[in-house]
Amino acid sequence: MLSLSKTINLNRTGLLRPLAIAIAMSPTPNPRARKQPRRGRYSSQLASTRGNARGRSIVQNATFPTSASFAEEISAVVVPPLSAPVPLSTPRFADLGAENLLHPILLQTITEDLKFDYMMPVQAATLRPLLSERADCLAQAKTGTGKTIAFLIPAIQTLINKTRQPRDGISLLVMTPTRELAQQIAKEASQLLNRLPYYKVGFAIGGTNKTTEMKNILNGCNILIATPGRLYDHLSSDETVADAFRNLDTIVLDEADRLLDMGFMNSIKDIIKLLPDKQKTNRQGMLFSATIAPHVEKVAHLVLSKDYKFISTIPEGEVNTHERVPQHLITVPKFSDVAPAMVGSIREEMKLEGKESFKAIVFAPTAAIVDFYTNILSQLSDLPPIKALHSRLTQAKRTRVTDEFRQAKNGILVATDVVARGMDFPSVTNVFQVGIPGDKESYIHRLGRTARAGKEGRGVFIVTEAESPFAKWTLKDIQFVATAADLSSASEVFRLVSTMETHAKTYQSWLGYYKNHLKLMKWDNAELVRQANVYAKEGLNAPETPSLHKGVVGKMGLKGTPGLIVIPDPPRVPRGGGGGRGGI
Residues 488, 513: one domain? Predict the structure, then answer.
């Protein structure tokens, strides 16, 4: 029997009204000196948002097929209704304490140590059902809205309620797509455990010593933050690791849509199979996702009970970052013009903002190209500090760069998509996207690193004429301001590039990336190689066409393409140890 829920229209106009009125009525002898109460994660922002959350319908108590193909399973899934409305008032964390939903020690940590008074919307919408009912929940919320606190508080309260001890093993498992996001979550968890030091937070994130990780997991870890690839590595290689989850109370998939977009579905399935059965442990499940696509629904039945609540804090009609941030499109004739255009645009934007507060992220397609642009920018003395961030850096280096840029008042971070989602860097004034991203979603999420927490921001998208169909068609809904390229630094950039010794590395990386975009640019393999060789000469100032190993050429699908300089593969060196699945 089908049971369809009605659409719930939520008037969020009044969401912050009680707080706004309270502040308006209070005496304000010195508005600049008066500190406003904090909400959830950030200092309070009282600008109300308008719109209604969109209701959806689903077959109630539906069972999910297990033997059908993945495509058939997807087609059977529809989006659930809003089964828990966003509150129309702005509650305080103290309200949860008054209802005996929060332990006094945890409440003191939140209100006295972290100085959080009022909840942010995602917290107000989710905390009560998560705490009072221990309900399973699929929550739609954007990054940077306080959702980490929303899932950590109920999980820590469960730790307290069940009087878990370090020897009891892992009570909370959080799976997240990247190491950086995992570290950010762990930092917030440690802050919430400030007055409960006997509970320990551990990692399973790759890029760190696997043996040390395993020891930490087995020796009194109560909260584990993990990327799926490394977690499966541990679970599948040692049965004692699975035993550490014998008292698993809560499992969270954060950035669920991105987890699946990055190909972690099979790893998540395998991990769930190795964990204690949900029916036996009665564990609580939570999924937090910015978008609710069919594949997110697909994974929901793995983690959540069939009567889970769906809560959205993204109202219909809310203006997204890409709809309100000025975005400039710079198109240059050749790939050798891209770096000079980048330098010219950065300098121009820095003049508008002022060097002291200019804080920008420059997105590049690959790690090698990130290093190439970083080398150029680092040698320009008129720019603020330059840092690079990509997956090929050591974990210690990535952590240091992330922390330093987060705390910096100004600077430029050159990065791959490793920071496109989930990472919160305060006060980013500009986002530069140099070269085309993988898809429209990547473009939007990159741009979302600026104009956060109510602040303004600007975007610049730099492409060649060959890449321009991406801006014209893939991003046809984006309102770009066509802007002329400033190539005045071309000779300066060319001189800097001539001193570098990374021609072969950048050339290979460029070839590999644009091999995946031949259809967009209407190239064949021969044209790709011809363009790459021109770029090597004019853009990288390479004395000759860089050579490629035979195996690399084969993997790129370029075997036999004219214009390549192919050399034999180096002798193979035996390697020990096993690799992870799907890690970053």
Answer: no
Q: Write 468-476 long-range contacts (CB < 8 A, 24+).
A: 468/331, 469/520, 469/521, 470/436, 470/520, 471/329, 471/331, 474/439, 474/440, 474/443, 474/520, 475/440, 475/443
CA–CA gap between residue 145 and residue 47 (Å, rounded): 14
* Residue 71: Cβ within 10 Å count: 8
Instruction: Determine the residue type at 104.
Output: P
Average pLDDT of the chain, as a whole number: 83
Range of the domain at 250: 67-312
Is 584 contained in some domain? no
Give the model's pLDDT for residue 575. 56
Q: CB atoms < 10 A from the CB of 392, how many? A: 14
**Residues 426-439: pLDDT tens digits?**
999 999 999 999 98
DSSP per residue over 365-387, as a string? Answer: SSHHHHHHHHHHHHT-TTS--EE
Looking at the fold, whether 328 and 304 belong to one and the same domain comes out as: no
Rounded to 10 degrees, the C-alpha dihedral 338/344/346/352 comes to -150
Q: How many CA atoms lie within 13 A of 391 on its CB side?
A: 15
Q: What is the pLDDT of residues 76-107, one digit of tens each?
A: 334 445 555 554 567 899 999 999 999 999 99
Half-sphere exposure of 442 toward its Cβ, with a 13 Å CA cutoff? 21
- Whether residue 542 lies inside any domain: the answer is yes
CA 77 vs. chain centroid, Å, equals 25
- Is the CB of residue 177 less than 8 Å from the CB of residue 259? yes
Lowest mean pLDDT among 47-56, 147-156, 274-283, 455-464: 47-56
Buried b (16+ CB within 10 A) or exposed e, 52-67: bbbbbebeeeeeeeee
Say yes or no: 476 and 347 in one domain: yes
167 Ramachandran zone, left/alpha/beta (phi>0; psi -120 to 50):
alpha
Note whether 413 and 295 are same-domain residues. Answer: no
Domain boundary among 453, 472, 494: 494
Residues 200 and 276 placed together within one structural domain of the fold: yes
DSSP calls for 26-54: S--S-TTTPPPPEETTEE--------BPP
Mean pLDDT of 370-390: 97
Measure Cα distances from 255 to 104, 176, 292 in Å.
30, 6, 11
What amino acid occupies position 30?
N
pLDDT value, residue 83: 55
Give the CATH number for residue 438: 3.40.50.300
List alpha helices for 335-455, DSSP H.
Answer: 338-353, 367-378, 395-407, 440-447
Answer for the pair 531, 467: CB distance below 8 angstroms, yes or no.
Answer: no
**Same domain flag for 468 and 523:** no
Domain boundary among 312, 345, 378: 312
Q: What are the E-state strand segments in 229-385?
A: 250-254, 284-289, 309-312, 327-332, 359-363
Q: Same domain for 162 and 125?
A: yes
Q: Are residues 424 and 488 in the same domain?
A: yes
